[in-house]
Amino acid sequence: MKHILLACSSGMSTSLLVSKMEEAASAKGVDVKIWAVAQDKAFTELGKANVLLIGPQMRFLKKKFEKAAAEEGIPVDVIDPVAYGRVDGEAVLKKALSLLS
Known about the structure:
Blueprint lengths: L1 E7 L6 H14 L3 E7 H7 L5 E4 L7 H9 L5 E3 L2 H6 L2 H12 L1
Parallel strand pairs: 1-2, 1-3, 3-4
Helix pairs in contact: 1-5
């Protein structure tokens, strides 16, 4: 099972995205756990994740997250703003899985 962590400013705006990603994963038969947290909680949740995707509004924090995630060997990237805005769970799931391979 892969563990995908999403982080955004408050943790609220990604909750619908988590649902859409779970639907896409289920349709594809991909075994994943996906959850979203606020940016300040992301650092404590890193150890439970295989990949971290951060909301587009937090792209300025990417290097800070990469530094913390490097210690755990966890890839970090920013969620595509278009996929984020469209709540395109399939596209974001595909991005997360590509970072894991």
